[in-house]
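Hey, quick one: can you model this chain's 3D structure?
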Amino acid sequence: MDKESDVVKKNKAETSHRRNFLVAFAILAITVLIVLVFRMVRDDVAEHIAKNYVNDVIEVFNINKYLGQAITIVVSLVLLFFADKFGALKFFADKFGASEKSQAVALGGITSLLLTYYLVMAYGTNPHIFDPKGNPIKCYVLTLEGDVRWLEPVDADPLTGRKCHTPTARMVESLTSYVQGKRPQRLGDEEIDFFDPRTSEPIVWYWKAKSGTIEIFNLMGFHPETGEELLPVTRDTVEQFKLQRAQRRQVLLKRQSPPKQIDPETYVFFDPATGEARGWYRRNNNGVYEFYDNGGFHPQTGEQLKPVDNAILTKWRAEKKEAEARQAAERSRQEQEAQLQADRQERQRQALVERERQEAQAGVTCDQLAGNPSDPHRSGEVTGVRYDELRAHATEALQACRVARDKFPDELRYKYQFARALEIDDPDKAIPLYRQLMSKNYVAAFDNLGSIYMRKHDMKTAISVLKAGVAANDPDSMVTLSNLVEKGYLPVQNPVAAKYALLERAAQLGHSGARIAVDEQKIEIQQRQQEHISQQQQQQMMLEMFGTILRGVGR
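Sure thing. Here's the predicted structure for all 555 residues.
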C-alpha cells in the first residue's frame, strides 16, 4: 500500500508541473490579449472579456480561483511594464485625466492590495490537508452554496451541525470538482465502479431513503430532491444496492409476463428491502377487488391494472371486514331460520306422531264409545254401548270416529259409528250417512234410520225402513218392529205370534234384548197356558161339584 502511495504521489507531482506550465502560458496569453483589448475596444467590453478568460483558465486547469487571480495580476504587471513602450500608461493617463506618474503609483498600489488579497485567500482556501506522511490533518464540510469548509478534526461543524468528513487524496479531487460547480448525478442500473482499484477508496456516494431504497451518485454533495447530504459508499451499502438492483431487474423481467391473480391473504405486496409495490389490482363489475402479481392489462377486459398501495389495502381490508360481517350476519340469520325451520319440523313431526297415535287410537276409541252391541260388524274386542250410554259422551265419540273414518275411509264400521254419534245432536245430518250405509247393506244402519223417522213421527217411513232391516237380518230392526206390532202401529192377524216371531229371530241373530224378551214371552205364554189349564181344571171341578150338588138334590 505504501509503494502504491508513492507512485501515486509521483504521478500527481508530474501532472501538477505540467499543469502549472500550461497555466502560466495561458495566463501570459490572456494578459497580452488584455493589453491589446484595452487599446482596441471599449473599456467595459475589455473588462468583460478579460474576466471570462480568467475564469475559463481557472476552471479548465482546476486551480484555486484566488491563486489564479493573483497569478494573473503578477503576469499583467510584468507585461504592463513592457507595454509602456506601446503607450499603455499614456493610455491610462488619457483615460483618467492624470499624469502618467500618478497613474503608475495608483496602479501599483491597487495592484499590491489585490495581489495581497488574492494570495491570502488562496492560502486560506487551500489549507494543508495532509501532513508530510500523507495523514489527513483536516476534515471538511460541504455547504449548500457550493463551497468546502476545512476544519480542525471535529465530529460536527459547529456552524452547520453537519458531520465533518475525513478526506482522502482521491476525495480532494472530487471536492475540487464540487467547488468548481459540478453537482452529483444519479447513476442508474449501468455497471458502476464503487471503489478505486488502486487505493480501494470509495469513488461514488449514496443516499438511503426511509423505505431502505438506495440511490448512487457520481459525486459528493446533496440529494437533489431531499437536500440531504450524500455519503461515501461502504461495502454493506454496495451489497444492499446490488441486491436491490437485482430485484428491480427481476421485477422488470417479471413485468414482461402476463399478470396472474393472487391470493391477497398470503401474498407479500411490498418488497421488504425497498418498499416498492409488488402487486396490482382492479375492481370487477361487482365492485370486488382482484389482485395480480404483475402490472399490465386484464386478460379478458383489457382494463389497465393499478399498483397497490397502503390506502388500497386498507380500503380492501375494511370492505372485506364489512363483507365478512354481512356474511356472518347472513349466516346467523340463516342459522336462526334453519333453527326455526327445524323447530317447526319438529313440532310438525310431533304433531304427526300425535296424529298418528290418535289415528291409531281413534279406531279403538270409536269402537269403545260408539260401537253398537247389536252390530254384526262390531269389533270383537269391545262390547259396545247402548244408545243412552252413547248420549253421555257423544262429543268425544264423534271426534274419535271422525278421525277413524278419515284415516280408514274404506272401513264402513267407522262411518256407521260416526253417524251414530252424530245422530245424538244432529239427526238430520245422520240420515244421508245411514242411507249410504244401507245402500252398501250395512244392516245396523236400518234400525238407526228407522228410529230417527219414528222420532220425527213419520211412522210410515220408519216401518218401511224397519221392514227393509228385517229383510236384511238386522236384529235391532226386528226388535223395534216387534214393539210397533205390539203397540198396533203395524196391524197383523196374530200380533202375539208376530211379535214372538220377530223377537225369536232377533235372539237367534244374537240380540241379547230379544233373547230376554223371548224368554219373558215364553214365561208369559207358559203362565197363560198354566192359567188356562188351571181355569179348565177349576171349571171341571166346578162342574163336578155342580153335578154332585145336582145329584144330591134329586135324591
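One thing worth noting: The first strand starts at residue 139 and ends at 142.
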